[in-house]
């Protein structure tokens, strides 16, 4: 029996909310890290009571508790890459931004969770401003969906050209090092197409469109997979391309559970057929 521990295991940290339904948030992130053979650590920002139909209740953690979790992980285990998801309120966002700066976490993926898939704003205007001005400039990449990109730019996004203009504006005016504008909320012909911009390269990432209502956790899974790939030392564009492939495969194995939108499925490497 081999009793040695693995010394070079990459470690990623997710700073996000808990989803009781297990499809998005911390649960999706840790599962994604695990399926990339990356050790997953977490700082829970809020606890949601939700399922495949919707969010019933959200309770925020005190900001001190969020920071203590990040500290506990960073000072002992170390963090090769991190991602943020639902940060919920201005206090938590500002504290996380400060901590990320203090710990010099360079591989930071910011999924600016602000708006539901239907376009409803989930956080206050003050919190949006704090994400824009304190957190996004610290990210190696920010991954807004269609509606989040609209809020960040004040642009209407209806076409591929609009997605490109938004990615360029977020890079320029919010000082994001790189941007991925996601197309899950676009009309059918553009669904599954994402725009990547890093200040030099403007790339269109397209995949097979998956015809499913079970799309819960797509954004969380994608940003966690990018963080996992960065933790493994991949360059940013490779990390994004491979994360997109992982997400597409997971989406094509989505789970038909619950009465609403089931979660993307991560078990495909274990399935025989
Ligand atoms: N039907 C689909 N077929 C293929 N890819 C899809 C489909 N729907 C979404 N995607 C992809 O899923 C990823 C997440 O995009 P989306 O716009 O859904 O993010 P999000 O709104 O942040 O997700 P979430 O619902 O988890 O909040 C993107 O890469 C997007 O292109
Ligand atoms: C906890 C949590 N984070 C993110 C999302 C967005 O999918 C969600 N529904 N729940």
From TrEMBL:
Keyword terms of this UniProt record: Kinase, Thiamine biosynthesis, Transferase
Pathway(s) this gene product operates in, as recorded in its UniProt entry: Cofactor biosynthesis; thiamine diphosphate biosynthesis; 4-amino-2-methyl-5-diphosphomethylpyrimidine from 5-amino-1-(5-phospho-D-ribosyl)imidazole: step 3/3
Family matches, as SUPFAM superfamilies: Ribokinase-like
Presence of keyword Acetylation: no
Domain of life where this protein originates: Bacteria
Coiled coil ranges: none
GO molecular function, one term: phosphomethylpyrimidine kinase activity
Domain Pyridoxamine kinase/Phosphomethylpyrimidine kinase positions: 19-264
Enzyme class: transferase
Catalytic activity: 4-amino-5-hydroxymethyl-2-methylpyrimidine + ATP = 4-amino-2-methyl-5-(phosphooxymethyl)pyrimidine + ADP + H(+); 4-amino-2-methyl-5-(phosphooxymethyl)pyrimidine + ATP = 4-amino-2-methyl-5-(diphosphooxymethyl)pyrimidine + ADP
EC numbers, comma separated: 2.7.1.49, 2.7.4.7
InterPro entries linked to this entry: HMP/HMP-P_kinase_dom (IPR004399), PM/HMP-P_kinase-1 (IPR013749), Ribokinase-like (IPR029056)
NCBIfam families on file: HMP-P_kinase
Protein name per Swiss-Prot or TrEMBL: Bifunctional hydroxymethylpyrimidine kinase/phosphomethylpyrimidine kinase
């Amino acid at each position: 029996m081999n009793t040695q521990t693995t010394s070079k295991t990459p470690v990623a940290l997710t700073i996000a909310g808990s989803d009781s339904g297990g499809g998005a948030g911390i649960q999706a992130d840790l599962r994604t890290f695990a399926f990339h053979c990356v050790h997953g650590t977490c700082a829970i920002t809020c606890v949601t009571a939700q399922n495949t139909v919707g969010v019933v209740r959200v309770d925020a953690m005190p900001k001190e508790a969020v920071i203590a979790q990040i500290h506990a992980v960073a000072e002992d285990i170390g963090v090769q890459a991190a991602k943020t998801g639902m940060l919920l309120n201005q206090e938590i966002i500002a504290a996380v931004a400060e901590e990320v700066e203090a710990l010099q976490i360079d591989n930071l993926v910011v999924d600016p969770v602000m708006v539901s898939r239907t376009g409803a704003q989930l956080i206050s205007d003050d919190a949006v401003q704090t994400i824009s001005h304190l957190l996004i400039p610290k990210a190696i990449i920010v991954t807004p969906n269609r509606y989040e990109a609209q809020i960040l730019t004040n642009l209407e996004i209806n076409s591929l050209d609009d997605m490109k203009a938004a990615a360029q504006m977020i890079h320029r005016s919010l000082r994001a090092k790189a941007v991925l504008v996601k197309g899950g909320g676009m009309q059918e012909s553009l669904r599954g197409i994402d725009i990547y911009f890093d200040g030099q390269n403007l790339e269109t990432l397209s995949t097979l469109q998956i015809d499913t209502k079970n799309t819960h956790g797509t954004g969380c899974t994608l940003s966690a997979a990018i963080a996992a790939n960065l933790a493994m030392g991949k360059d940013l564009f490779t990390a994004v391309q491979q994360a997109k492939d992982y997400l597409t495969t997971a989406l094509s194995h989505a789970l038909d559970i619950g009465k609403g939108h089931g979660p993307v499925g991560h078990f495909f490497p274990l399935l025989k057929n």
